[in-house]
Task: structure prediction
Amino acid sequence: MVRWARRRQEASGQQFHTVYASLGLLIGLPLLAYFVMGMPLSWELPALKGFNFKGGMVIIPELAALLIALSIYTGAFIAEAVRCGILAVSMVRQKPPTHWACAPVSPCAWSLFPRR
Result:
């Protein structure tokens, strides 16, 4: 769609806003398919029937384990990137100058808010 819009602009000089068309496709097509198929999704509240629950949604243990593992992995990756960014700041920028009469602040705060 972006290529077509670029060619159209080069040929006619008129811009085509691809953002609105892309959002329309991303939201409109799934909604159209949902209504054409007769709204196949329904909500059920779980109810206790005998010794077991009936209805509702089931989350399989494999999916829960995958979700937890990916969350921990992504969090560790982001934490490592932030740690490397803080360590990349030179030591001169981490220590406040002694002639400023600054209150003692942790080196991490000086790293996150460097001076000019």
About this structure: The mean pLDDT is 81.
